[in-house]
Amino acid sequence: MSKIFHDVENNRIDFLDERYYKAGDNFYPSVTFVLESYPKGYGFIEYLKSQGNNAEVELKKAGDEGSLIHDAIDMYLKGEQVVWNDEVYSFRVWTQILKIFSFFETHKPEIIENEVSITSDKYRIGGTIDLICRLNGELWLIDYKSSNALYKTHELQISAYATMWNEVFPDKKIDKTGILWTKAQTRGEDKSGKKIQGKGWQLKEPERHYTEAFKIFQYTLGIFNEENPNAKPKNITYPDRIKREGF
Question: pTM for the whole thing?
């Protein structure tokens, strides 16, 4: 996949490798690209082995489903009607979407930002934050996950996002980070009122503060930079117009 930049003045279209974010004249690797350098662990490796030749297909399928979920939530938060269509949404994807809707309808967070791309000149990284909201009087950074399990890389990802946000908006610092997980084994609301959850979903807050988790991300970033000393996006440029000669 790629990001598209239309340079009207020079009559060209630039297709940018989606693993990078543009910051002025610079290109920074995405947080998720950096986290590919983090050890995946025994369970993930065994899962890929069990998939055999289908591993790449399954990973792409998961990515496509995640994109559909994010797009639907984006429409919902913009006040647009999201309508089920069997040519677009599978039953599995639609149920994940409904779980996230349940969170919004039940807890009614104040939306500050939604699907916002951000970069850090200090750490030279970029990423897209799913949600910044005010919930119970605190400013939260939330990432949506529909994976079968939650991994340490998910925690590191949101720690990097929170650090970037604080760099760009020092007067609106993040209080808490969380993962809105749509594959949780929860049966309904938490009767104690201490946890934010519903049937099949839960807002998981990491046990350690994001500033501590970010230290581990920095180690990973160091490994990434060591292995990719001249990391550059694969840019493809095309003209934005064509015309047959002589006409």
Answer: 0.86
Confirm whether 246 is domain-assigned: no
Looking at the DSSP assignment, which residues form a beta bridge with residue 110?
134
Q: What total of structural domains would you count in the chain? A: 1
In the numeric block, the tokens 């996950």 are attached to 145
**What is the model's pLDDT at position 185?**
95
Largest interatomic CA distance in the chain: 77
Is residue 244 included in any domain, yes or no?
A: no
d(CA 35, CA 33): 5
Determine the structural domain holding residue 110 and report its residue range. Answer: 2-239
Burial string for 63-95 (b: 16+ CB within 10 Å, else e) reads eebbebbbebbeebeeeeebeeeeeebeeebbe
- Ranges under pLDDT 70 in the chain: 1-3, 5, 14-16, 41-49, 51-63, 235
194-225 per-position pLDDT tens digit: 999 999 999 999 999 999 999 999 999 999 99
Distance of alpha carbon 95 from alpha carbon 89, whole angstroms:
9
Structure tokens at 195: 């946890």
Query: Which CATH number do you get for residue 134?
Result: 3.90.320
Has residue 129 been placed in a domain?
yes
Whether residue 247 is contained in a domain is answered as no
**Gap between the Cα atoms of 7 and 67, Å rounded:** 26
